[in-house]
Write a structure and sequence with these properties.
Helix content: 25-40%
Shape: globular
CATH class: Alpha Beta
Structural class: alpha+beta
Strand order of the largest sheet: 1-2-3-4-6-5
Number of domains: 1
Order of helices and strands: HHEEEHEHEE
Mean pLDDT: 93
Number of strands: 6
Strand content: 35-45%
Largest sheet: 6 strands, mixed
CATH topology: Aminopeptidase
Length: 142
């Protein structure tokens, strides 16, 4: 690897987006030109206006990628946990998504997602302290 310098880029270099544009240009040679990722954000608040849950994700290459889903303990078992992903999945379909994917630690919500129609498609065993990290996917019905 002679002739190369590995370095920590400046914030300006990272913010410029040059690296991402170069990767996208490479990928376009395989999958054609595709749009940027599109955020899918859904939140819920209680009658007092307090944030009690939300989902953050994005659609890219026709997939909804769920980054996080959280519902406060006091708001659980009231249907909110089902409503947030269902709303996000619907919005993702409007953005052209045909499927959804996520990962969740085994102590978090694997069983919940399986009940919502997700299936485990992979896992990393012993990801942390003897726990596995399952990867799940779901086809979004038209």
């Amino acid at each position: 690897m002679s002739g190369f310098e590995i370095y920590t880029p400046t914030a300006e270099e990272v913010d410029s987006g040059v690296l991402g544009r170069r990767l996208r240009a490479f990928n376009y040679g395989f999958v054609g030109e595709c749009g940027q990722s599109q955020p899918v954000w859904v939140s819920a608040r209680d009658a007092q206006g307090t944030l009690v849950g939300g989902l953050r994700g994005f659609v890219f290459l026709q997939w909804l990628n769920v980054d996080l889903l959280f519902v406060d303990e006091a708001a659980r078992h009231q249907g909110l946990g089902r409503s947030l992903p269902a709303t996000a999945e619907h919005r993702a379909q409007e953005l052209g998504a045909h499927s959804a994917t996520l990962n969740t630690f085994e102590w978090q919500a694997r069983g919940f997602y399986l009940k919502q129609g997700y299936e485990e498609c992979g896992r990393i065993d012993n990801y942390i302290a003897g726990f596995h990290l399952p990867y799940l996917k779901k086809s979004l019905a038209p």
